[in-house]
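Collaborator request, handled under Task 6.
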Amino acid sequence: MKKNEGKKFRTAIGFSNQEKVRKFFKLTDISPIVNWKKIEFSNKRLFEIFDKINSAVSIDIKQSNMELFRKKIDTAYSIMKNNHIIEKLNNQGRNPDDVYYNWMRGYLVAEFFLSPIAKLFDADENKISLIGEDDLTKIETFSRTATADFELLNSKGEVIRLEIQAGYTGKNEIKKSKILEAKHQYDSKKIQSYVIHFDLFNGYAAIINITNFSKLPENAFHKSFENTDVIKIQEDWFKWNLMESLPVLSNVVINYSPKLLTSVQQ
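C-alpha cells returned to the collaborator:
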C-alpha cells in the first residue's frame, strides 16, 4: 500500500488529519457522556463499602462517626460536580463515572485510615500534609503522578512521604515510577518514602519502605494491564491485620534487604 493512496482515501471519506480519522473510528471524538445515575449509586456503594469495613476493623482503627464520613463523600462529589470536573475525568479512554468511582475509593481509603497511620508513624495527624494539588475544583488534582500522597514529620523530626493505596480483588502491586521517585527524594533531600497498601479483599495492610527498592533487579518487575512496570507485593509483606490491635511500626514494616530478592523474583 502506498502512503499517498491512504491519504487519498482518508480525504475521500472527509478527513485531512490522520488523528481525527482514528478518533472518528474509535468514537473518541465526542465529549464523554457521564452516567449520573451510576455515579449517585456509586456514592451509596462507597459508603456501604467503608461502613462494612468499619464494622470489621479493630477499635483503634474504627471511625467514631460514620455519618461524618458519609458527608466527606457528599462534599467531595458536590465540589467536583459543581466545578464540572467529573465530565473531564479520563483514564485511558474509560468512562468518567468509572474513573470517578476508582478515584473516590482511593481518596476515601486515605481519609479512613489516616488517623491510625499517624499513630503508627508517631506523627500529629493534623500536621500530615497532602502533597501537591488538593483542590477538588481543578482537574490537575486528578492527574496520575509518581509523587507520594502525603508528607509527615514524626516525633524524631524525620520527614517521611507516604503513598496510600488499596487493592480490592487480591491483586496488589507497586508501580516502578513510585520506587524511582522514592530514590530521587532520598538522593536529593534524604526523605524516606513508604507505600502503605491496604488489601481490603483480605483485611491486611503492607507497610513498605520503598526508599531503597531501586536496588531491585529489572527482572523483579513485570508489566501490569496498563502496560506499566510494577512489582508484586508479596503475601508475607502483609503483616498488619486490620482486625487486630494497632501494631508497632517496626514489627510490620518491610525494608529492602538482599533477602527480598528471592521472593520478588519468583
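The cover message to the collaborator said: "The first strand starts at residue 129 and ends at 130. Helices lie at 3-12, 18-26, 36-56, 66-82, 96-120, 176-189, 249-252, 260-264. Please let us know whether this matches your experimental observations."
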